[in-house]
Structures are given as structure tokens and as C-alpha cells.
Amino acid sequence: MKKTLVYVSLLSALMAGCSSTPLNDAAEPGVAGSPNTLEESLGLDKLRSDSLLTQRSVYFDFDKYEVKPEYQDIVNAHAQYVADHPNAKVTLKGHADYRGAHEYNLALGQKRSVSVKGAMNVSGANDDQIETVSYGEEEANQNCQGNECSQDRRVDISYEVE
Amino acid sequence: MKLIKFFILNLCLLAITQTQAIEVIDILGGKANELSVAVTPFVGDETNNIHNVIKSDLTRSGFFRAINIDAVKSFPKNIEDVDFTFWSALKTELLIIGKVEDNGDQIKVTYDLVDVFKEKLMTTLEFIGKKNQDRQIAHQISNLVYEKITGTPGVFHTKVAFVKKIDNKKFTLNVSDMDGYNSKAVVTSTQPIISTRWSPDGEKIAYVSFEKKKPVIFVQNLKTGERKLVANFKGNNSAPAWSPDSKKLAIVLTYNANSQIYLMDADGSNIKRLIRSRSIDTEPTWSPDGKSIFFVSDRGGGPQIYKMNLDDDEAKRVTFEGRYNVSPRLSPDGKLLTFITMEQGSFRVAVQNLISNQVMKLTVGRNDESPIFSPNGHMILYTKKLQGEKAEIATVSLNGLKSVKIDVGKELTQEPTWSPFDF
């Protein structure tokens, strides 16, 4: 994880160098990107303020993995962001509620994250920038009741550098 | 010691197997078929451990009903002392009596199994052991009684392993006697542990840990204490399943797509794709002959159990009742399949006869998980999730008559596995 982070930072420094803005020319060689460069190349400001990009969870029905229409705008916005920032790396972490088998829930959480990835691919996001993983029911509320459990049926969207 | 014991046992068995062996398949879902047994305190047993252990072992099996003998004041030491009129009046079919002799460091335990109706000694045996081995000796007596009556070896000497979740921040993989005693942690982690699988050779436990911020597969050697990371591929690594010879593991990997089943050597080498689909394929488990894999797939919509022969790559659906069937495990003879089925929102332990395809639900739910057969195929160990962030492990007899908790403390306990006969 740490290694990847340094790699991304170096990459962004290099790419920022290519863009030849006066600010980047002043950057010292070997320095892993000044905070400003990283901020700009990853458009972190937008990531933190945009009304859709600040929404980081997509919710699902029981034993379902299809992205529901009401989450399409959020997924599109993230797909667009990933497509616009080739050095951004996003992790889609799938979850399931506590009911049913641990292993099937792990697979279901994964299928949900793959489903969100698929929707992002359609909207132009590159596969190489997206990592899918699942925690199944392992972080779920083991005592949820009724609608409360829907909070655990989700995919969380997180970026490596924010 | 062991040799002598088995010699005597086999002699007795020859005489009774024909008439008294109970076929488990016949009683699957059958009505009450319990034999009543009076397990008397062993004369000279200061701790009273021995008869209590035998009583709880036999009761757990679902084949025996221990009659209440609280009002009885004196107990026979051997068959010559037995007042058959008295015990017949208590409506007990079997009587277990015995005595303990203290020889300093060692104890000598003698027991008699008596057929009350026939007024006949069925078997008698003597054990010598250390004083602190009284529970083990009691389990051995339970095994012999069980085998004498059912024709199938008992499993009361075996062990179970399970995961404890302590205050939501510590997870331990524990090993204990099958009745919950002598529980010891063999792995401790701050991250969840799931999918424990005891190797058929008894030496190792494979499990899934989230300690790499994602699921990866470890194998814990129980003899050396060595812990080996055997699968840490991109994405999720989960659902390890030992081949019957303990040489291979079927596992589930995702890379950047849906869960798919792979096969590798138990040390993590020689990985290859086993089944290719666009759906979820997970929870592989081997048939006892090693020729096929049962697994869960949602290729037909919801999760159902399928079977694939390793030589023809063709998956056939096995479960048809209900729209959610997961966590398949086979009985040691390969004739029965246990799994979790969802019915009206309740998750229950079910057993399907793979010849007749008859399905029996053994538990009432609501949130049961992870069933696994005992090494003799007569019981199923599973997780029972309870209200309020609690879970315990329990056994249920195949006739569904007895579900008994395995008491390992008040912490959330789940994801159990059962040792083989020998370990």
C-alpha cells in the first residue's frame, strides 16, 4: 500500500513535469510531488466538494447486485472523474448484510463491486484504475432489523489519494 | 492399551451388529427413536465428572435419552449389584454403571453397559489413565457405548475448531474438545477470521483472514504451530476446501471479477482455474471419493448448490427446493448433503439425501450457518446466530431431535470445523 502510494506520487510528479507549468518547473527533482501538484493533477478539490463525488456509497436490495437507477448519477460522476484523472486509483469495496453464509456474502459483496465497476467502465472509466474487493458481512451490523440492514448492502467508493 | 481395548470391542460387536445397528439414513427425519439410559454416578469418582460427561455425550447424539435418577440414593458398582426390578420400574432400557479406583498418580475406571430388559451385561471394560484424564476416559466410554448400540464409532473423543469474536476487536481461532472443554486459541488477530477447514489428515486448519485488508488464505499447522500464507492473489482469496488426501485445496479467487473456483497444491503452488463462469461460483467442497466438487453458484438466479465431476467439467444442479441454498458439505459416506436453506426469511440447516433427493430441515433457524458433518456422519455442527450480536456453535442430530450448544463461553462464536477421527 505504502509502495503504491509513493509510486503514484512520483508518477503524478512526472506527469506534472510534462505539463510544463511554471510551478512544476520549479519543483526539485526527486521530490515526490509538491502537495499542490498532487491536488491539481488529481482534482482533489472537486473530489471533496462536488455534490455527486462526495457521495461514496451505492446501496442494493437483498441478494441483489444490480446498480439501481437512483445511484446511476453517482456512479457516472465517479466514472467521469476516474476517466478524467488517469493517475487516480479507486477501490470499490463490496458489503453484504449479516444474513446468510459468510462466504456467499463475500462473493455477493464482490459481485456488487464488480457491478459498480462495470457501470463505471460503460461510462468511460479504465479497468486498470479500479480495484474491486469485498468484505462480505464482516463489517456488517450483526444485529440489524428490517430496513436497517439495507445500510450494510452496499459498495463503498474510496480513492487511494484524497 | 489401545489394542486391547479394540480387541474386546470387536468381540462384542460381532455378536450384536446384526440385530442392533441402527441405519442413520432410515431414521433421518424419523420419529423419536431414543433409547432410555440411566447413567449412574461412578462409585469412587470424587469429581463426578465421568458420569456427567457420558450422560451429556450420549444425550447430544440424539440416540439416547438420559432418565432422571436424582431420587436414586445408592448405585450398583457392578452387574452383580443390579436390582433389575428397580431399574425396570424406572423404564430404563440401558444402565451404565462403573467405579473409579485411585492408585496414586493413576486412576482405574471400570464400566458396565447393562441391558435392563434382558438382564444382561452387554459390555464391560477397564481403563487406566492419569487423574486429569478422567474426561477423556469418559469420552472413550461414551464412544464404546455408542458403537455398541448404533454399530458406528462414536466421535466423543474428537475436537472442534471455531472462531471467537471478542469485543468486536479481537478474533481467535480456537481448538477444543467436541463438548467445548479445553478450549485454546491457536491464532489471534485484530481482523476477522472465517471459513475454517480442518484437513482430513488432522494436521492442519486452513482459514480465511482479513489481516491484509482483504481476505487471504492461511494454513495453520497444529503440530508445529507454523502459519503459512498460501493464497494472496489480487482481489479476494477465500473458501479453502481440502481434497480428501489433504494434498490439494480448492479455493475461490476474484482478481478483478466475480468469485471463481481454482485448484492448487496445499502449499499454494500449481494454481489453476477449475470452473469458468460469469456468475458467482464459491464454497467448493469435495466429495469423499475426491472425484467431484460441490459448490454454490448463482448462475440460475439465486444461490443454489451444483456438482461438477472433475473429469467432465459439467456442472449439474443439486438443490431445487427454495431460492437460497448455500454452504454445502457432504457426509463421510457421500450419501447426504448438508447445507443452509432459506425459508420465509429464516436460514436453517437442511440435509438432502443425494439418492432420493428428499430434503429434511433439521433446525428451526432463524439465522443458522456453516453446517458440517461429524466424522461418523451422525451429527451436524453449525453456527446459531442469536439476537443482539451473539452467536454460538451447536450440534444437531441427524434425526433433528437434539440441538445442543457447545459451551465455549459467552463470546460470539462462529465458523466451526470438526477434526477427523484421528488427529
CATH architecture call of the largest domain in chain A: 2-Layer Sandwich
The number of helices of chain B is 5
Number of helices of chain A: 6
| Strand coverage percent of chain A | 5-15%
Q: What is the H-and-E element order of chain A?
A: HHHHEHEHEE
Tell me the Rg of chain B in angstroms.
23 Å
Mean pLDDT of chain B: 91
Q: Please give the share of residues in helix of chain B.
A: 10-25%
Number of domains of chain B: 2
Radius of gyration of chain A: 18 Å
Q: Which CATH class of the largest domain in chain A?
A: Alpha Beta
Strand order of the largest sheet of chain B: 2-1-3-4-5
> N- to C-terminal separation of chain A?
14 Å
**Strand tally of chain A, please?**
4
Helix-strand makeup class of chain B:
mainly beta
* CATH homology group of the largest domain in chain A: OmpA-like domain
Description:
The complex is a heterodimer of chains A (162) and B (423). With 162 residues, chain A is of the alpha+beta class. Chain A folds into two domains: 1-42, no CATH class; 43-159, OmpA-like domain (60s Ribosomal Protein L30, Chain: A, 2-Layer Sandwich), CATH 3.30.1330. Chain A has helices at 2-18, 22-25, 35-42, 44-49, 72-84, 102-122, and strands spanning 57-59, 90-95, 130-136, 154-159. In chain A, strand 2 (90-95), helix 6 and strand 3 (130-136) form a beta-alpha-beta unit. In chain A, helix 5 packs across helix 6. Chain A is elongated and about 45 Å long. The model of chain A is unreliable at 1-31 (pLDDT under 50). Chain B is mainly β and 423 residues long. Chain B folds into two domains: 2-150, 3-Layer(aba) Sandwich (Rossmann fold), CATH 3.40.50; 159-418, TolB, C-terminal domain (Neuraminidase, 6 Propeller), CATH 2.120.10.30. Chain B is 14% helix and 43% strand. In chain B, the strands form seven sheets. Chain B has a five-stranded mixed sheet with strand order 2-1-3-4-5. A four-stranded antiparallel sheet of chain B has the order 8-7-6-29, with no helix packed on it. Chain B has a four-stranded antiparallel sheet with strand order 9-10-11-12, with no helix packed on it. The interface between A and B is medium-sized, with 27 and 41 residues.
